[in-house]
Amino acid sequence: MLKNYRLLKVCASRRHILNFCRNKSTRVDGAVFLEKGHEGPIIELLPEEVDLIGPPDPISNLRPIIRRRFVSETKLQEELRQKQDATHQWNQKFWSIHNTKFIKEKQKFIDDQQKAGQEKHQLTAEEMSEFYKRFLDENWKIHMDYNFQWYKKNFTLLFLALRVSIEKNVGKIFRNEYYLDLIHLYSI
Question: Which of 9, 49, 53, 151 has the most beta carbons within 10 angstroms of its beta carbon?
Fold first, then answer.
């Protein structure tokens, strides 16, 4: 369906026009980035069709993801999807708080550097480097805790994804008639 990088799709039932584009840099097969629709916010896709990836959040700079739900989703697939969503929400919350704090402290630093009664000027990179170093030093422990938790969550997701893959592939093997005949033959 999405062989080209740009595709204009008309949702026949509602006649909404959506621009889909598959980004060359995405590492996820089947992921689609949505651009602005021309008529309304209603998006109609088949449940198993694609993961939807939205525009970046203005504060956290993370893209929201609506993960596809399989019609015959197993308990393990559901658990993986829910943990992926929970990890994304945790990430969203952390970066929203962190970036808000960064912007406020940066603005305070700039205001403090501007001398009262003098003409306002843009600070140089050298002057701003003082702020960046101080901010990183003050938040070092927070960043270390975040990285530790992020690694822990991602290893959990990798382990679950491996289990889902094994479950899916083992199911394919045992649905194959050749293997069913072998099992039946040896069970006699």
Answer: 53
Q: Are 74 and 167 in contact (CB under 8 A)?
A: yes
Q: Note the pTM of the prediction, 2 decimals.
A: 0.65
How many angstroms from the chain centroid is the CA of residue 125? 32
| pLDDT at residue 24 is higher than 60 | no
Q: HSE (CB half, 13 Å, CA atoms) of 11?
A: 18
Residue with more model confidence, 16 or 37: 37
Q: What spatial distance separates the first Cα and last Cα of the chain, rounded to whole Å?
A: 46
Q: Give the per-residue SS3 of the chain.
A: CCCCCEEEEEECCCCEEEEEECCCCCCCCCEEEECCCCCCCCCCCCCCCCEEECCCCCCCCCCCEECCCCCCCCHHHHHHHHHHHHHHHHHHHHHHHHHHHHHHHHHHHHHHHCCCCCCCCCCCHHHHHHHHHHHHHHCHHHHHHHHHHHHHHHHHHHHHHHHHHHHHHHHHHHHCHHHHHHHHHHHC
Q: Which of 59, 85, 68 is nearest to 32 (CA)?
A: 68
Please check the confidence at residue 139 and state whether its pLDDT lies above 80: yes
In the predicted model, is pLDDT for residue 59 greater than 80?
yes
